[in-house]
Amino acid sequence: MQKDSEVEVSENIENINQLMKQRLQKLEEMRASGETAFKSKFARTHLLADVIHAYSEIEPGENTGQEVTVAGRIMAIRRHGKASFMALKDRTASIQLFLSLGTLGEENYKKFLDYDIGDIVGITGTVFKTRRGELSIDVKDFTLLTKSLRPLPEKWHGLKDVETRYRQRYVDLIINPHARQTLLTRVKVVKAIRKWLDNRNFLEVETPMLQAIPGGATARPFITHHEALDIDLYMRIAPELYLKRLIVGDLERVYELNRNFRNEGLSVRHNPEFTMLEVYQAYADYIDMMNLCESLIKYAAEEAVGTLKLTYQEQPVDLSGEWQRLTMIESIEKYGGVKVSFDQSLDELRKIASEHGIRLEEHYGKGRIINEFFEKLVEGKLWQPTFVTDYPTEISPLAKKKPDNPDVTERFELIIIGLEVGTAFSELTDPVDQLTRFEAQVKLHEYGDEEAPKAVDYDYVRALEYGMPPTGGLGIGIDRLVMLLTDNYSIREVISFPHMRPEKG
RNA sequence: GGGCCCGUAGCUCAGCGGUAGAGCAGUUGCCUUUUAAGCAAUUGGUCGAAGGUUCGAUUCCUUCCGGGCUCACCA
After folding, report:
1. Which of A54, A260, A440, A497 lies at a C-alpha separation of 20 to 30 Å from A90?
2. For residues A144 and A36, is the Cβ–Cβ distance under 8 A?
3. Distance A236 CA to B4 C1' (A)
4. Nucleotide nearest to A361 (CA to C1')
């Protein structure tokens, strides 16, 4: 591939359309006249938002005489005879440029107007307001900082083609304010979460992404290979077991906010790599984590979008007030209209399941069946933030059992807009119980459950044998939280570069 | 992986058996306060790819490629 790149480039130049040819021609002319179209550095005196902030109050027709030096991308050109206008955009705002033949002189006026939409320029000029009241910069001096060779999408409709928007996110970001806003909100969410946790003495740590035994969740992992060691490694499906090792190591409060990888289907709410926050707090339980989770998300929402009263896909979502809490069994009765319990027999539960069209695998126990009821009949209906507690032990291999009911665990999931946004539990600290449950999981794998772990993580059990303090652990899916906060239906919208099939071949 | 839908100019879209259109962008004129500027002229397409049916295919059929939604699986 690499050695062919020169050939490919020249082939591309042969095949490109006339719009690019025209721009390449301009580039050639500049080169011939000794000017580079790709300059190194440009010192601005103002960001565009600064200019707007400082001078927005001036009167229409007023010229401040104030000189500013700004830079940005040309987004529109309105040629107008002996005076013309451009729209200039930088990271903070857009402003109008005014070009007049009188000020620039014929040669420079023509030269500037020969620039293209998409070009990146540096400008010096004075701030004034047009008769129509548009704050503008009367250009005295200009320089081309970067020549743009490809035409941008249309100014009015923008770039709509979803495939191009994802594959060429840079274009999406240039042209579609919504794409930019989503990314900026995501940045604020992440920053707010870190700030909240840092302020409470949680330590941000980093644990292995390449793992010999992928644990901490049930999912099919990506497999990779370490050449020097000649062993297969797995991209982590969760950082959980390593973070808890750090709790064993007496760090007491840790978190990690980074990528997990799961080798499963793509969908509007699943990307093969996704960002997860995991928080562990020693001497806390799942109720503490519930409170932590609620405060943290409220804080992040307030910081990122400035309100707790949201709209998602035209439906209101209210994050203010106390979030609903109910057990899984209660939720199935309330939202699914079905009464189930662990007191019923396996056969009874199976019968009710089939009456509701719920398909079950042979090896499912009561807990997993009850969870199926929840997922099929309830989860999608939980639109307002809801903590669902008392998850079955059978599907919670890393959570502490409830002292008064070993069928369920001290665990919750947070559901908003019908989506699982977070999960937390009182971590299982009993090494003997943990080993038993790991072994049961490995059996499931042997029965053909691809998502169950292949091997027991004995080192993790050994760590527990040294003693882990009682600990609450919480996971929050950051992409989904951002979907909620930015009102995006697809997870791909909140990921800068979502996974796509390769473009060619 | 199954089902449904989409792929036409740089972008946004029409056309759907008779050989390709509009708006924006581009190019050339005119225009010194416009702002989706305006007016006039104009360039630009192997109609996603390959087969098939037909006198003739962008249009109908098949396969493939890419994408979207959805179901299954998962967070």
Report:
1. A497
2. no
3. 35
4. B73
